[in-house]
Design a protein that fits this description.
Elements (H helix, E strand, L loop, with lengths): L8 H12 L10 H13 L2 H23 L3 E6 L9 H6 L6 H10 L6 H12 L3 E9 L3 H10 L7 E5 L7 H14 L2 E8 L13 E3 L9
Parallel strand pairs: 1-2, 1-4, 2-3, 4-5
Amino acid sequence: MNPLLKPFLPVSFAIVLAGCMAPVTHEPANLSTLKREVDRYAGSGRYEADLAAVSRAAQKWISRRARQGGGNLAVVLDIDETVLSNLEHMRENDWGYHPGRWDAWMKQADAPALDPVRGIYQCARKHDVAVFFITGRSESVRSATVRNLKAAGMGDYGGLILRADGSGRSAAVIKAEQRRRLSERGFTIIASIGDQQSDLDGGYAERVFKLPNPFYLIH
């Protein structure tokens, strides 16, 4: 080997090595991969197991708190992915949101009950605790929602509070305001249950219980 080339070997090797190294990027997890993970979670039994764990904790609290008494006790429940499941609709739409298809799905009034969470409703009524549904659904689907809740065995409630048609206000603000109004009417909300943090933020509930929902996020 030509001795004059020796000093250049380390430099040449470093250039080749640098050329083989992939650049650092900030690419998130692939959307298709994440959809498959969500689908596996929903279909593996883990989703229902997580719902059941939260439901047991909520029922235990409601039973204990109801025995203590004290005023007009109430429980607030969200609807979608709380007491009713839209899993079939979401899968059919590849986990996407299409407003027209979503409205048509709600109007069918066929969403099945989430059994573990229906247990919370049943527990509240067993202890003569009033149930109020506060949902992001709009007034345009009130009649369909009434039918769906009744068909799912949850037709006995103190009130069904829906979003005004065309309202652009955030779910967190609307739901906190509605809980405040219930409190001003003399109800003591002992538990608020929902699948979104926005279902629970804003106070006016003694305890909150967050259900799992990896499918969508509402602020």
